[in-house]
Design brief:
By secondary structure, the chain is α/β, with parallel strands linked by helices. The protein has 11 helices and 12 strands. Strands 1, 2, 3, 4, 5, 8, 9, 10, 11 and 12 form a 10-stranded mixed sheet that branches. A two-stranded antiparallel sheet has the order 6-7.
């Protein structure tokens, strides 16, 4: 009876229909490669992709966030905006087989460039304005393939406005933009770079991702992206930046999405594997923390486990 009463007065709840599951799709055949630094996470070729998507659908998780891994890379990141690239192929593949699944397409060049940066590089300098047309082409290619939501993660200035204009001009007026507005230059992304093969070949990404010390800058970035047409805002990473999520929620009337990133996932998995923590309790406590801070949705590699635990406890 006391547990029932506690549940009745609980201020925040985690639900499976608020989860978004990241999926890595790789060019090739018969590929199901474990990401060593992310236990339980795999790269899939299209022919093996149903193995993962079936689990997502069975878990009643409503959305996936797609990341592509091309067979070849070049300095222009051309695979990112190729109409027949791996992400458009994956979008069409999923759309034909899982019509009710929400498909979110990450837009960035880092997985596709030979240098590993999120924008074009000239003389060692990332070129912001020259990158915008390529990001826009990628967004249109993904929308044309059937993506429900476009999610630019590159952190180039004014890319939301450029993408919004490109989508509108191609007739995708109602395709929303989920913008990585508060994305910090973080050490928590290491395992993701293993999964996506996207580590920078030189330097780092601090010239275009945000300094972890700058909370007010994050608010300016969010405000600018909203003005340019963003429909949702991502704060990334989540665990070490709960104050950012809370401040976005307080200042702006827009849905906030917490991205529980690869390093956060890997730390929990490693500690649980060593018997140092109770994985379920820790993960669910983290999920509640994101909701308590103000997140409406949660992107997390734990999504399949969270959905299963919620069913078991229902």
């Amino acid at each position: 009876m006391k547990e029932t009463l506690r549940n009745m007065v609980r201020e925040n709840h985690v639900r499976a229909d608020e989860l978004i599951y990241p999926v890595f799709v790789r060019e090739g055949e018969n590929i199901c490669n474990l990401v060593e630094s992310m236990p339980g996470i795999y790269q899939y070729s299209l022919d093996r992709l149903p193995e993962e998507i079936d689990r997502v659908v069975d878990a009643e998780i409503p959305a996936v966030l797609l990341f592509g891994i091309p067979a070849h890379k070049d300095e222009m990141g051309s695979g990112a905006y190729d109409e027949n690239g791996i992400v458009p192929q994956a979008i069409r593949f999923i759309r034909e087989r899982y019509e009710n699944l929400l498909i979110i397409a990450d837009v960035c060049l880092c997985e596709y460039t030979s240098h590993g940066h999120c924008g074009l590089v000239c003389d060692g300098v990332i070129r912001n304005d020259e990158t915008l047309p390529l990001l826009s082409k990628a967004a249109v290619a993904y929308a044309r393939a059937g993506a429900d939501i476009i999610a630019p993660s590159d952190m180039m200035d004014k890319r939301v406005g450029a993408i919004r204009q490109a989508l509108d001009e191609e007739g995708f007026l109602y395709t929303p933009i989920l913008s990585y507005s508060a994305k910090f230059a973080s050490a928590y992304y290491g395992p993701f770079r293993d999964a996506a093969h996207s580590a920078p070949g030189f330097g780092d990404r601090r010239t275009y991702q945000m300094d972890s010390a700058n909370g007010e800058e994050a608010m300016r970035e969010v405000e600018q992206d909203i003005a340019e047409g963003a429909d949702f805002i991502i704060a990334k990473p989540a665990m070490a930046y709960l104050d950012i999520i809370k401040e976005i929620k307080r200042k702006f009337n827009i849905p906030v999405v917490a991205y529980n990133v690869s390093g956060e996932y890997a730390m929990v998995k490693a500690a649980a594997a060593n018997g140092w923590i109770d994985e379920k309790k820790i993960v669910m406590e983290n999920m509640i923390a994101f909701k308590r801070a103000g997140a409406k949705m949660i992107i997390t590699y734990h999504a399949l486990d969270v959905a299963r635990w919620l069913k078991e406890d229902a």
